Amino acid sequence: MNEAESKGYEFEKNYHGCAQCVLGPLMEIFDMKDDTAFRAATGLAGGVGLSIEGSCGALTGGVLAMGLWYGRELSRIDDPEGLRFISYRLANQLHERFVQEYGSSICKKIHKKVLGKSYYLNEPDQWDAFLAAGGHASKCPGVVGKGARWAAEIIMEEEEKRKKGAK
Fold it and tell me: Which residue range is the domain that position 57 belongs to?
């Protein structure tokens, strides 16, 4: 869990792109690397396309990781095992952690909580103000680090539960 949090924090601080900065460390930790999924997560940063209107990228990156681990495949979209319901349940758990910690899972509301106001990241002057307020120095890296930790905890708890059920 500590590794997920510290890697998520450092990825966001150094490289930016909250969804990828949660997904990447989780892919490494759980040995489920998928460059296509990682690339697909690019546009989810900043509440989708830096709009700040959608779900926090740290949440969506964690949900993507859970889907890689427990999701259904296109070739088995009928999902006879019901894998999608595992993904739904785990995604909901992660969403609830964001709501408990930040009061919301929406990027602009999380901005307001951790930065004191929300910044429209697609506007250059707002981007500069976001950076000056510590957006990439510590604030969003903190959110990303927690998101990576929470997702790792949820995945590990599910794995333990599945192991106990298999015995």
Answer: 2-166
